[in-house]
Protein backbone atom coordinates (compact mmCIF):
# COMPACT_ATOMS: atom_id res chain seq x y z
CA UNK A 1 0.00 0.00 0.00
CA UNK A 2 1.55 3.30 -1.03
CA UNK A 3 1.37 6.50 1.01
CA UNK A 4 -1.56 7.98 -0.89
CA UNK A 5 -3.68 4.84 -0.36
CA UNK A 6 -2.76 4.80 3.32
CA UNK A 7 -3.62 8.49 3.64
CA UNK A 8 -6.93 7.96 1.84
CA UNK A 9 -7.75 5.06 4.18
CA UNK A 10 -7.01 7.17 7.26
CA UNK A 11 -9.07 10.08 5.97
CA UNK A 12 -12.01 7.76 5.19
CA UNK A 13 -11.75 6.20 8.67
CA UNK A 14 -11.71 9.64 10.31
CA UNK A 15 -14.62 10.84 8.16
CA UNK A 16 -16.67 7.77 9.14
CA UNK A 17 -16.10 8.63 12.83
CA UNK A 18 -17.00 12.28 12.32
CA UNK A 19 -20.20 11.34 10.46
CA UNK A 20 -21.50 9.48 13.53
CA UNK A 21 -23.86 11.33 15.86
CA UNK A 22 -23.37 12.07 19.52
CA UNK A 23 -24.84 9.51 21.89
CA UNK A 24 -27.18 10.53 24.70
CA UNK A 25 -24.36 10.31 27.26
CA UNK A 26 -22.82 13.44 25.68
CA UNK A 27 -25.98 15.51 25.65
CA UNK A 28 -27.41 17.79 28.33
CA UNK A 29 -30.42 20.07 28.57
CA UNK A 30 -31.15 23.30 30.39
CA UNK A 31 -34.06 25.72 30.53
CA UNK A 32 -34.23 28.16 27.65
CA UNK A 33 -34.03 31.93 28.11
CA UNK A 34 -37.02 33.40 29.90
CA UNK A 35 -38.39 29.95 30.72
CA UNK A 36 -38.69 29.04 27.03
CA UNK A 37 -38.22 25.55 25.59
CA UNK A 38 -35.26 23.52 26.86
CA UNK A 39 -31.95 23.95 25.08
CA UNK A 40 -30.02 20.83 24.09
CA UNK A 41 -26.24 21.09 24.20
CA UNK A 42 -22.99 19.24 24.85
CA UNK A 43 -20.75 20.34 27.69
CA UNK A 44 -17.39 21.76 26.69
CA UNK A 45 -15.27 19.22 28.55
CA UNK A 46 -17.12 16.33 26.90
CA UNK A 47 -16.56 17.71 23.40
CA UNK A 48 -12.88 18.40 24.15
CA UNK A 49 -12.44 14.83 25.44
CA UNK A 50 -14.15 13.52 22.31
CA UNK A 51 -11.87 15.62 20.07
CA UNK A 52 -8.89 14.12 21.93
CA UNK A 53 -10.26 10.62 21.24
CA UNK A 54 -10.96 11.32 17.56
CA UNK A 55 -7.85 13.34 16.61
CA UNK A 56 -5.47 12.29 19.40
CA UNK A 57 -4.35 14.55 22.24
CA UNK A 58 -1.65 15.95 19.95
CA UNK A 59 -3.69 15.85 16.75
CA UNK A 60 -5.43 19.18 17.19
CA UNK A 61 -4.95 22.53 18.85
CA UNK A 62 -6.92 25.68 19.50
CA UNK A 63 -5.91 29.29 19.72
CA UNK A 64 -7.79 32.45 20.56
CA UNK A 65 -7.91 34.67 17.49
CA UNK A 66 -9.65 37.50 19.31
CA UNK A 67 -11.23 38.19 22.68
CA UNK A 68 -13.25 41.33 23.24
CA UNK A 69 -15.28 42.69 26.10
CA UNK A 70 -18.58 43.79 24.61
CA UNK A 71 -19.82 45.56 27.72
CA UNK A 72 -19.33 46.00 31.44
CA UNK A 73 -22.38 47.52 33.07
CA UNK A 74 -22.37 48.54 36.73
CA UNK A 75 -25.60 49.13 38.60
CA UNK A 76 -25.28 51.78 41.31
CA UNK A 77 -28.53 50.51 42.80
CA UNK A 78 -27.50 46.84 43.23
CA UNK A 79 -23.70 47.49 43.26
CA UNK A 80 -23.30 44.59 40.80
CA UNK A 81 -21.79 44.03 37.35
CA UNK A 82 -23.20 42.59 34.16
CA UNK A 83 -20.56 41.59 31.61
CA UNK A 84 -20.51 40.23 28.04
CA UNK A 85 -17.46 38.88 26.19
CA UNK A 86 -16.97 37.58 22.62
CA UNK A 87 -14.20 35.18 21.55
CA UNK A 88 -13.12 33.92 18.15
CA UNK A 89 -11.19 30.65 18.30
CA UNK A 90 -9.39 28.66 15.62
CA UNK A 91 -9.18 24.87 15.91
CA UNK A 92 -6.38 23.43 13.77
CA UNK A 93 -5.74 19.77 13.00
CA UNK A 94 -2.26 18.29 12.69
CA UNK A 95 -2.46 18.45 8.88
CA UNK A 96 -3.25 22.19 8.92
CA UNK A 97 -6.99 21.99 8.27
CA UNK A 98 -8.79 24.47 10.53
CA UNK A 99 -12.14 25.99 11.42
CA UNK A 100 -12.86 29.22 13.26
CA UNK A 101 -16.01 30.20 15.08
CA UNK A 102 -17.33 32.69 17.58
CA UNK A 103 -18.41 32.14 21.17
CA UNK A 104 -20.08 34.29 23.79
CA UNK A 105 -19.99 34.53 27.56
CA UNK A 106 -22.23 36.62 29.77
CA UNK A 107 -22.82 37.04 33.50
CA UNK A 108 -25.41 39.17 35.22
CA UNK A 109 -25.40 40.52 38.77
CA UNK A 110 -21.82 39.70 39.73
CA UNK A 111 -20.42 41.20 42.92
CA UNK A 112 -16.96 41.32 41.38
CA UNK A 113 -15.94 42.85 38.06
CA UNK A 114 -12.82 40.65 37.89
CA UNK A 115 -14.71 37.43 38.63
CA UNK A 116 -17.31 38.35 36.00
CA UNK A 117 -14.66 38.99 33.36
CA UNK A 118 -12.85 35.76 34.25
CA UNK A 119 -16.00 33.65 33.97
CA UNK A 120 -17.15 35.36 30.76
CA UNK A 121 -13.80 34.99 28.99
CA UNK A 122 -13.61 31.28 29.82
CA UNK A 123 -17.22 30.73 28.79
CA UNK A 124 -16.73 32.59 25.49
CA UNK A 125 -13.57 30.62 24.63
CA UNK A 126 -15.16 27.26 25.52
CA UNK A 127 -18.25 28.14 23.48
CA UNK A 128 -16.08 29.13 20.51
CA UNK A 129 -14.04 25.90 20.74
CA UNK A 130 -17.24 23.84 20.75
CA UNK A 131 -18.63 25.79 17.80
CA UNK A 132 -15.37 25.45 15.83
CA UNK A 133 -15.14 21.71 16.55
CA UNK A 134 -18.72 21.12 15.39
CA UNK A 135 -17.64 22.20 11.91
CA UNK A 136 -15.65 18.97 11.66
CA UNK A 137 -18.78 16.82 11.85
CA UNK A 138 -21.75 15.37 13.65
CA UNK A 139 -19.70 13.54 16.26
CA UNK A 140 -18.28 16.81 17.57
CA UNK A 141 -21.66 18.44 18.04
CA UNK A 142 -23.01 19.42 14.64
CA UNK A 143 -25.79 16.81 14.97
CA UNK A 144 -27.34 18.93 17.75
CA UNK A 145 -28.38 21.48 15.12
CA UNK A 146 -30.70 18.80 13.68
CA UNK A 147 -33.79 19.58 15.78
CA UNK A 148 -35.48 16.24 15.06
CA UNK A 149 -32.40 14.31 16.19
CA UNK A 150 -31.96 16.47 19.29
CA UNK A 151 -35.60 15.91 20.32
CA UNK A 152 -35.28 12.14 19.99
CA UNK A 153 -31.84 11.59 21.52
CA UNK A 154 -32.78 13.31 24.80
CA UNK A 155 -35.55 10.73 25.28
CA UNK A 156 -32.97 7.93 25.51
CA UNK A 157 -32.22 7.05 29.12
CA UNK A 158 -28.53 6.92 30.02
CA UNK A 159 -27.57 4.55 32.83
CA UNK A 160 -25.64 6.27 35.65
CA UNK A 161 -21.88 5.74 35.63
Automatic annotation (TrEMBL):
It holds the Pfam family Rad52_Rad22. GO terms for cellular component: nucleus. It comes from the Eukaryota. InterPro entries: Rad52_fam, Rad52_Rad59_Rad22, Rad52_Rad59_Rad22_sf. GO terms for biological process: double-strand break repair via homologous recombination; double-strand break repair via single-strand annealing; mitotic recombination. GO terms for molecular function: single-stranded DNA binding. Belongs to the RAD52 family. The keyword DNA damage applies. This is Recombination protein Rad52. Keywords: DNA damage, DNA recombination, DNA repair.
